[in-house]
Specification:
InterPro entries: ABC_transp_permease (IPR001851). Keywords: Cell membrane, Membrane, Transmembrane, Transmembrane helix. With 316 residues, the protein is mainly alpha-helical. Helices cover 76% and strands 3% of the residues. The protein has one domain. The protein is globular.
Length: 316
């Protein structure tokens, strides 16, 4: 393999080419894959991962991790249901849920940036605390929805496409613009590349990290609300393992674990690769037990690709 070809394959363009080839092969070999119903189902299945990946991209690009996203998604969905039931107002319930998710993200950011506690340890602790609160508040059981209008968040459609898919697409556009066209995005990549140099250049690194985690909490709340509407209840055990799927999608899409590198198109492709892998296994009636193995292999592949990309960039 020539050096130029290797750089293309390890770069963003290579990922898109590989995805296009894989998509074509799957379309031709797997029955019912390319039907409209299956395509919409596939996109709906990756809504939660895709939404959370929008801001996980910023966390990873700034050299941080957030392992608490699954717990925040689950509890935010439960808060939305419980608050809506208690107040009789769905908008108020949604606002309370968004406030909760945002607050947890803010706390994560403050602890990491101001108290200088490692992001991995901080969010691991938050993951346990928030999941515990979800189980305590519901006594370990699903919380039913009183007002059927809540279901319309997931069931409603625009131009024949379910609303959650439009929300995911909108967030991809928004955060893609933020990453590529704003000072916030440039500073995020700069912090990931060299935090100390960014600080000397006048970037308020601590507040940047706080903002990134706050946005992560906000987006997790949105994902949790849509998930609760889709599964028609608040589930304390929902979104278990979501953090690993989201990180896999981001790293597979070219976001560097070492920080300083991210691209929204790569993240989108990474999300779709995870969705297609699971969708194909379902269409082929492969047992769920094997799907865990495949997810683990995809995570390993993502890390391997990240190492290869870093080495390739380091040799330039």
């Amino acid at each position: 393999m020539t050096g130029s070809l290797k750089r293309i394959l390890l770069g963003e363009q290579g990922l898109v080419v590989i995805f296009a080839i894989a998509f074509a092969v799957v379309s031709l070999t797997v029955p019912n894959f390319l039907t409209e119903r299956n395509m919409l189902g596939l996109l709906q299945s990756v809504v939660t991962i895709g939404i959370v990946a929008c801001t996980m991209m910023f966390c990873l690009a700034s050299r941080d991790f957030d392992l608490s996203v699954g717990s925040i998604v689950a509890f935010s969905g439960m808060v939305a249901v419980m608050a809506s039931n208690a107040t009789g107002s769905i908008p108020l319930g949604l606002l309370i849920a968004v406030g909760f998710g945002t607050f947890v993200g803010f706390v994560n950011g403050v602890v990491i940036a101001k108290l200088k506690i490692n992001a991995l340890i901080t969010t691991l602790a938050t993951m346990q605390i928030v999941r515990g609160l979800a189980l305590i508040s519901s006594d370990g059981r699903a919380v039913g929805i009183n007002d059927a209008s809540f279901y319309q968040l997931a069931l409603s459609k625009f131009l024949g496409v379910p609303t959650p898919i439009w929300v995911m697409v909108a967030l991809f556009v928004i955060f893609g613009f933020v990453l590529n066209r704003t000072v916030f995005g440039r500073n995020t990549l700069a912090i990931g590349g060299n935090p100390e140099a960014s600080r000397l250049a006048g970037v308020n690194v601590d507040w940047m990290r706080i903002w990134i985690f706050t946005l992560q909490g906000l987006v997790c709340a949105i994902a949790g609300i849509l998930l609760a509407s889709r599964i028609t209840s608040g589930q304390p055990n929902a979104a278990t393992g979501l953090e690993l799927s989201v990180i896999s999608a981001c790293v597979l899409g070219g976001v560097s674990l070492a920080g300083g590198r991210a691209a929204i198109t790569g993240v989108i492709v990474g999300v779709l690769i995870l969705g297609i892998a699971e969708n194909v296994m379902n269409l082929l009636n492969i047992q769920a037990f094997y799907q865990y193995v495949v997810r683990g292999l995809i995570l390993l592949l993502a890390v391997l690709l990240d190492n290869l990309r870093s080495r390739s960039l380091g040799r330039r």
